[in-house]
Amino acid sequence: MKKFAQNFAGHFFLGLGIIGAFLPVLPTTPFLLLAAYFYSRTNHELHQWLYNHKMFGPPLRDWDENKVIGLKAKIVATTAIALVLFWRIPRLEIHSLMKGVIVVILTGVLLFIWTRPSRRI
Predict the structure, then answer these.
(1) Which listed residue, 32, 53, 60, 103, has the most CB atoms within 10 A of its CB?
(2) 115 falls in which pLDDT band (50, 70, 90)?
(3) How many CB atoms lie within 10 A of CB 43?
C-alpha cells in the first residue's frame, strides 16, 4: 500500500509539474523534484525518464547535483510571486493577519530562490 501511495504521489506531482510548464503562475521544478523523489522510491524507470527528459531533466539535475536554480526560473518565479503579492493578496477577503502570514511565506520563498546560485560554480 505504501508503494502504491508513493507511486501515486509521483504521478500527481508529475502532473502538476507538467501543468506548471504551461501556466506561468504554477511552479514546475518543485513539483518535478517531488515527483523524482517519490519515483526514486517506487519506479526506477520513471525516475530515470524524468532525469533524462529533454525539458524537465536539466533543472532537476542542476538542483540535485549543484543546488542551482536557473536565472530564467528565478525570474518566472519572482514575477508570479510579485503578481500574487501586489495584485491578488490585497484583493483577498481574509483577515489581515492571514495576509501577513502569506506575505512572510512568499518573501521567504523569494529569499530562498535568490540566495541559490544561478549557474554552476
Answers:
(1) 32
(2) very high
(3) 18
3-state DSSP assignment of residue 23 = coil
Task: Map grid coordinates 491578488 to a residue.
Answer: 88
In the chain, the amino acid numbered 8 is: F
DSSP 8-class letter at 89 = G
DSSP string, 42-72: H-HHHHHHHHH-TTTHHHHHHHHHH----HH
Contact (CB, 8 A) for 14 and 32: yes
Q: Which three cell numbers stand for residue 76?
A: 518566472
Using alpha carbons, select from 43, 112, 121 the residue that is nearest to residue 73.
112
Residue with cell 532537476: 60
